[in-house]
Amino acid sequence: MSWLKNSTLAKKGITKPEGDVLVEKIPLRLKPEEEVLAREIQRESARVWNTVMTIHRLFWLRYGIWIDEAMMKEFLKGRFEVHSQDVQAIVETYYECWERTKKLHKEGHTEWRYPWRLKRYFTPTWKVTGITAEDGYLRLSNGWKKPPLKVKLPERLKGLKIKQVQLVWRRNGYWLHIAVVKPALEKVQGDIVAAADPGEVHALTLTDGKEALVISGGHLRSLHRLRNKTLRKFQKALSRCKKGSNRWRKLLEAKYRFLNWVEAQISHVEHAITKMAVDWCVERGMKKVYIGDPQGVRKQDCGRYHNQRMHQWDFGRLRDFLGYKLNRHGIALEQIKEGSTSGTCPVCGHYTKQSGRVFRCGNCGFSGVHRDVVGASGILDLAVNGRFTEGRDLPRKVVYLRPSVLAPVAKKCRKAAAA
Ligand SMILES: [Zn+2]
């Protein structure tokens, strides 16, 4: 699950009144004939893209005029075997791309190319009039010459308003990206400020100065480890077979299957973690949450193993999930430079490089509090006061939680790792 960022939907401002628009990504299991249809729609969409590009260029070369978007849409009407809104969506994408390049060229970035590549496949888009949801099925219309594509709608999407659907090829199969409207949530009325410290051992540590919540990152870390380990195995096995051979193809299939599965698991845990953090914030009536930016931490060279460990830790996604979810409750998330927060002593302000999980000051000897709690409290101090306050109070109550994840991991993991 993710949300629309730069998409046309968000830009046109039609998302605001009814609620929040989210994009749900669901993998498809298509029958052979449906797969053929999907491919045909993609090819036809590519034909639209190629035609728009060719006409746009040709008219400029021959007559010195740039055809505008409205004229292009009018000209292409009824000429393709896809839904008319798909044609329009492709024209819009083309013009967006073209305008953006034009702007960049004006600013002197002439290395950006105008759209030029002829495509074989293009992602088709369905908008409201091309989509019907009935009896738990999603019916995507393809104009009157082609049959519609029918897809079973997942339980969680039933009854939700659907704004847009895209058919996307990813790795080894088709996915639907469905933009749905989720009802707006009640906004929190509070004025408390909190800080969050993302980390590896503890995925998130939150504090409002009085209390702290520490959410374990162990499960997430083990999934990342499994992902890398298994991927390495696949890579090794793949390198031993002849490219294109039967064995090679089977391995590739298995690798994709594994990746799809493990990534779904990872995102599930990330959702569980951020949900816990958001619930904690909502309960306490937060207005704003500051989050440490571990960019600086990640850039340091800490040896091969540590580097790889830090690399798998996809902090950006966790932050995006958190920011988005907080936002739905009207809570702002602001990023601040983390720097030396977890090493600076809350009592004397002296910086000590930390090696253990429990904070230990090399100057005054202060110890006994978890280092991530000190880190989060430091971020809060830095955000609110602009500097570290000597002798600041640390949260008195610390709660440790594990992300509540439903799916049993162990069995499936072993099977995947053995493949
Ligand atoms: Zn100290």
UniProtKB/TrEMBL annotation:
GO terms for molecular function: DNA binding. Residues 315-378 form the Cas12f1-like TNB domain. GO terms for biological process: DNA recombination; transposition. Signal peptide: none annotated. It comes from the Bacteria. Residues 183-297 form the Probable transposase IS891/IS1136/IS1341 domain. The keyword DNA-binding applies. In the C-terminal section; belongs to the transposase 35 family. NCBIfam families: guided_TnpB (NF040570), IS200/IS605 family accessory protein TnpB-like domain (TIGR01766). This is Putative transposase.
